[in-house]
Amino acid sequence: MRRVLAIAFKDVRRIYRTPSALLTMLAAPLILASLLGAAFGGAQAFSIQPVNVVVVNQDAGFAATAGQAGAQTTGQSGAHQALGAILVDVLRNPGLEDVLEVTVEKDAATARSAVDDGDAAVAVIVPGGLSASLSGASTAPKATLELYSDPREEIGPPLVAGIVGQIAQGFEGSRATVTSVGRWAEGGGSGAPVSASEVATLTQRATAAYEQLARTSALRLDQRAPRVPGASEREPSVASLVLAGMLVFFMFIGASTVTRTIVEEEIDGTLPRLFTTPTRRSAVLGGKFTSAFLTVLLQTVILLLAGILLFQAYWGGPAAAIALTLAGAAVASSLALLLTSFARTVAQAGAMPSGVYLVLALLGGNFVFGLADTGVYAVVQRLTPNGWLLIGWHHAMRGDGFGAVVLPLLMVLAFAVLFFVLAALRFRRRYA
Amino acid sequence: MSIAEIEGLSKQYDPPDGILAVDGISFDVAEGEIFSLLGPNGAGKSTTIGMLSCLLQPTAGDARIAGHSITSDPQGVKEAIGVVPQDIALYEDMSARENLVFWGTMYGLSGDELQRRVDAVLELITLTDRQKDRIQTYSGGMKRRVNIGVALLHEPRVLYLDEPTVGIDPQSRRAILDGILALRERGMTILYTTHYMAEAQELSDRIGIVDHGHLIALGTHEELVKLVGEQAEVELTVDRHGDRLVETWRELPGVHSADLDDEGTGVRLLVDDANEMLPQLFEAAAAEKARITSVTVQEPTLETVFLHLTGRALRE
Known about the structure:
Chain A is of the alpha/beta class and about 425 residues long. In chain A, about 60% of the residues lie in helices and about 5% in strands. In chain A, helix 8 runs parallel beside helix 11.
């Protein structure tokens, strides 16, 4: 056993002293995961650019209804704001600043040209009679809110239309209230006729109430999604799924980096020399397997930690993660040994396993960031050791518990035993 | 008393049609002696060492090293031997000490004994002060010394040295040869292979001459030279027609062999009596209108023996 460990530690030390091996085993999976994660919408890499909105507020306010048109257009109007100003304030609300970037312009032509020039996605043009139109007076004219948008923009215009529509509905609600109150007053309340200025005052009060209520809502929205039986606790991010695929793929690559030294040592003469010492050939094979196992184990631990730090990846419970790491290292090492047993040159020992791993990765789903539960692909994936390993990791990452990874673990270990036995037979024949 | 007994050892690669690299070699090596296998490249020396190291399975025959059969008890053989391969077999990205500790572990050493043996070997190969440097930073001679040191870690009863001085500078070669003689002084049995006649002559208690897989002569240096009898070796340099002159001289009575070098101007002859033959050699050259520019006559050496036995120079 001492000789086995001596061979293993010697190889691990040599591998981790080799910059190119470290690049292949550690840097490559992280770089690839970062790139693929960004390309496929990794949570940490993805962000929405705010939509540029130009607003023109021409609203003359409620005063216009009471014969004071043009008293103020954009700002405060005494105790209460005109509706146009409220709309502008809502659009500039700090809560929307990640989504909307609002600029206020003086006139509609300037706003439209900003959209035409591509400087803004949407122009919101508030008409002069907005407040008047919603005053609740029976004689109030209709007003039109204009949304002038860039036809090439797919996200900004519907987003702004939705927000403005919500605000308009609030205004309409106020108008309906005021109108109802007016009719009640006219029809049987006090019996006294309601003047236009009184309606305007009521509207202002209703608007103020709306504004106040909007700020101090009595209702709270609590979004909840009940758990569907059999569904997972959590869904891993795309970036962490990509990293899992890369992790499994590069475990095999890492193992081959070690087992390739069998051919290198055979050519360099250190392996034949080893066979002239009292060290048994089984110990040499065991040492090579152990060195691959330890190297992949260390590589995996580093990548798992890097995944947590860089991608906020969740790898599942400790038991599942440890078991999958050990089983993965075992199957990667034994397959690498088997493939190396067919290689006669260093070039073969490098290229041939890489080709096999690439095919296995395509079949097993290393480059597909999800699992197939049914269909041909699900069957194909379950024919490969890396496919089972990925299934195990995906269950672990979804928080499915240790029970969900038992079958994948057993399958991975079965592959590991099969590969090791075949490798041992091959090497026994080769070095007889 | 023999520590190595080799009987009818043969090795054929890819039988039945493959090359017969070693064909029924038999010899004994006495405990404490330096025994050299001398022969040209491809004679079968390294294959013989490979079988005696239990690296290669013999096609026929057997050998007992320190009482252990190479066919039935290879583990026992491996514990008794130390092998210095022809090429450097070390981990270049590890230091000399790391290499020695690793190989010592492979020979079954551990703990304080391992560290003590590593220190002793580093001192023996005079690399104590460079022990922490990686092998890749060493000169060729230093690497050779570590290569030998590895095989000495477990103090083997028999040390195999397979052409350990190939491709190194004269100073390093001298150091290695002195080291081998020092090991013999300490009672170590050494099986040495070389194609350098001078090395075999200087080091060996007994020499086995190998050619084409056969052991064609065996004995001490003096015994081997006697095989040549009173013959002498004559080396001539001619200015032209070396190829024609070799043919002519070879036909002369009293000339046993004539051999032309690669440049086509140097001729080596084995003759019965140099004094008697030299005038005839000059006459033949004059007849071919060639001029002899130098003449050397020397007493028989191992080279002469090989020439005598095979009709070819050892360098071929």
